[in-house]
Amino acid sequence: MGSGDPFGMPVSHALASGMGGIRTAGDLVARMQLHRKMRLPEAKRYVAEKLKVSSIDLSDEVAMRELREELDIGVITSVPGAARGLAAKARIARLLEIEIASVRIHQGKAEAGF
Amino acid sequence: MTTYRTRMGDGHAVEMSADELRRDIDAGTEEAADRGKIPALTESERDYLFDLFTSPARVVGVEQGHEVILTDDGSVNALYGAQSSSGVGVPVSREMGIRVYERAFSMDTMEVGHPDYSYKPVKPIVALEQQCLESVLAATIIPMYYGAMPNLALYAKPDGPFGNPADLMPQGKIAEAREAQEEAAEVCRRDMVYVARKMAESGADGINFDTTASAGDAEFLATLQAVEELAKTTDLSIEVGMAAEFVLGMHGKVTYDGVRLAGLYPHQQVKLVEKAGAHVFGPVVNTNTRRSSAWNVSRAVTFVKACSEAATIPVHANVGIGVGGVPMCETPPVSMVTRASAAMVEIGRVDGL
């Protein structure tokens, strides 16, 4: 986006045109752009196929809130026992068939010998 | 006569008639087409902008299903920072602020960045920055960049060891100014690669080169060379966001892949950024404070549409204060930010903002 106070910039753009982050599937689509250089339509198609939903569902707050909890890949509200942080990202990496560097480093340390 | 309340490029309110709005939309796109040697907007695209600027709605948005990915530069210094960073002075740490952006603002991605947002000052404290990044990565879900500016000007006297081209050129010392920029660019490239490698070691998802080419073409070259090296040797996702619509020829002769960098516009910049190996490109189109928002948005989306059509990698247009059609003022009006946002998606065909 760019410079600006939090209400004028991230909040305004999020309302006008943002996918919604972990409130929907914005983080998942972003990962396909970042990891595979996918343009937006291709990234949405890829994630929609993996989640077995339509592309428009990826920005549907209600549909994605339920599906994220079912898949246990992190939800926007604070749910006791739900995957958070690295645990959620480890599941996202498996779901999208990508490597997430922080997950790889964490797993390497967890599994390293003494 | 019916008039519509809109804004000037400096943010002040102005009443304009339908004819005046239409004339400014036409003039804005034609100005971009003339400067960039790119196609002007079609009639239907101009009609879309006209409807956008004559709509009485305060907040507008994209069609459902057209939502795009948001990336942010400057990390969360708009939360804890001061006026110079549009900061609202909330006493939160960066780790806390990023959690707020993820969970309260629903950002798709975020970045860790130092308040002195350039690679040069980060280098001596890189371990502290890695510590913050690792803490953030453990607790968040969204993709996480580390970001800073190449900021070649910091390498010139009095801030750095190299000659200052802004002092040398007025004295007629053109060769010396060029040599100083080449030397500074090499050190700048090394600093960017050093910091980025450290962030890769800590598990960053990506590295963001923000406000690239702020000091001109030599800085753009240093960044492209850093991108090329990092793309070959790390698994970082690399974003290059620009400083302005036009690469300033402070050096004038530097080239990348046989292309002279001075004078390139966004649709040309993106091809070199792709060639270097970047994953995301952030074009900038500057706001003219003396023209209306209709003129500025029309002009900005004309440049960005050409860039999106030329690109093979995702394009995340810059739409902060003073760029992308957004007014240049401290408190950007929500009415104009959302209009610029929607127009960038629906006409500029961006993959993100």
How does this structure look, described?
The complex is a heterodimer of chains A (114) and B (353). Chain A is an all-alpha fold and 114 residues long. Chain A contains six helices and no strands. In chain A, α2 (26-36) packs across α3 and α5 crosses α6. The model of chain A has no long low-confidence stretch (mean pLDDT 97). Chain B is an alpha/beta fold. In chain B, 44% of the residues lie in helices and 11% in strands. Chain B has a five-stranded parallel beta sheet with strand order 3-4-5-6-9. In chain B, strands 1-2 form a two-stranded antiparallel ribbon. In chain B, α9 (217-233) packs parallel to α10 (266-276). At the A-B interface, α1, α2, α5 and α6 of A face α4, α6 and α12 of B.
State the assembly state of the protein chains. Answer: heterodimer
Structural class of chain B: alpha/beta
Summarize model confidence as the mean pLDDT of chain B: 97
Q: What portion of residues of chain B belong to β-strands? A: 5-15%
Total beta strand runs of chain A: 0
Q: Would you tell me the structural class of the helices and strands of chain A? A: mainly alpha
Q: Any low-confidence stretches of chain B, pLDDT <50, length ≥5?
A: none
Approximately how much helix is present in the residues of chain A?
55-70%
**Averaged pLDDT of chain A, please?**
97
Largest interface summary: A-B, 56 and 74 residues
Weakly predicted, low-confidence segments of chain A: none
Q: Give the number of domains of chain B.
A: 1
Read across the widest sheet of chain B, the strand sequence of neighbours is 3-4-5-6-9
